[in-house]
């Protein structure tokens, strides 16, 4: 099984830097494989808690080299919840890559563990009679300090449901649980890696060198 690793995060940073520089990213230093994956960008401001700046991926297996290249940019620039990340924000970013594994059909909406399982829910919106779905990665519920029900309710809202959440509606949920491996690196660690591996720090158009 392929596990998330440092080289995958480096490739995501490389891809974003190359985008700002209108050039091609260096080839990745990890092997190809087929896995579901996510790329998450967070921003640290004044030493505070990292705040989400973009998170997009795929629940279907795909080639991870193309996957990380595509979702590094999609999550940074086209997450509809946030404005696109600008080059000047790079020194404040951290990136997490996730490789998803062990998909299992849960018995019910409570058949999972906080901090261990990611969730995919699917349910019928009783107001509009349409199917809604959404996912949270394994670390989300634990990071937010949610109970299982709080996580489920939040996920239903994420799916676009705005009506009353009842016990009956929760019980109607079809839940798939999964696990993941992940690796996180901040921009300064990325710069240090590039200096060591390639002999010089990256140059980013639109970012001030003195900031990193």
Automatic annotation (TrEMBL):
Domain AMMECR1: 1-194
Superkingdom of origin organism: Eukaryota
Protein name, UniProt field: AMMECR1 domain-containing protein
